[in-house]
Amino acid sequence: GHRGAAWLERPDREVTEQPQLLINALKLEPTDVVADIGAGTGYMSFRIATEVPEGKVLAVDIQPEMLDMLEFFQDINQIENVEPILGEADNPNLPDEQVNLAFMVDAYHEFEYPYEMMQGIVRSLKPNGRVVLVEYRGENWFLPIKRLHKMTEAQVKREMANVGLEWTETLEVLPQQHILIFSKPA
């Protein structure tokens, strides 16, 4: 819940999750429209906003309290190209065919209605739009993360195929998480 905001903003997150490595892996264009699904306090949204100066970040969260904090940080940092969107458990409330890239950092496994949520995300993608999921490696038994907060690569691929996405590649550049990249057929 929103009481987890401190965890999202924890000082060692730069070290444990290496957000810049993830951002580099996204291969963003300056004009991209990026949907940050499960944006929370905007930790990743604001980092991505600087990479898409002529585009924007649609910061989706289903908790109004998280978006309140995101807007607070947005005002302090004077970041113009982040647009908060209040999603629902089964609908990200994104505009159709506007998004170049939708990404989820440790968020997908939390979805109450993953199939419906992903259908909404796929609808929002432009043709050849990409979906990037970052999840703790379910294959790694030694990660000090509860099993239900991890996902295997096979599991993610299966669930994304169910909503019509094609797997492109898996990147293993982060210390504890895999980056799985999918695309929407044109």
List strands and helices in order, with pairings.
Layout: H1 5-8, H2 13-17, H3 19-25, E1 33-37, H4 43-49, E2 56-61, H5 64-77, E3 82-86, E4 99-105, H6 114-124, E5 125-137, E6 150-151, H7 153-161, E7 166-171, E8 177-183
Parallel strand pairs: 1-2, 1-4, 2-3, 4-5, 5-6
Antiparallel strand pairs: 5-8, 7-8
How would you sum up this structure, described in words?
This protein has helices spanning 5-8, 13-17, 19-25, 43-49, 64-77, 114-124, 153-161; strands spanning 33-37, 56-61, 82-86, 99-105, 125-137, 150-151, 166-171, 177-183. With 186 residues, it is of the alpha/beta class. The protein has a single domain (2-6, 15-170), classed as Vaccinia Virus protein VP39 (Rossmann fold, 3-Layer(aba) Sandwich), CATH 3.40.50. Helix 6 links the parallel strand 4 and strand 5.
CATH architecture title: 3-Layer(aba) Sandwich
Beta-strand portion reads 25-35%
How far apart are the first and last residues' alpha carbons, in Å? 36 Å
Report the radius of gyration as a whole number of Å.
15 Å
Number of helices: 7
Number of DSSP strands?
A: 8
**Shape call:** globular
What is the residue-mean pLDDT, rounded to a whole number? Answer: 88
- CATH class assignment: Alpha Beta
State the fourth-level CATH superfamily.
Vaccinia Virus protein VP39
Which structural class best describes the helix and strand composition? alpha/beta
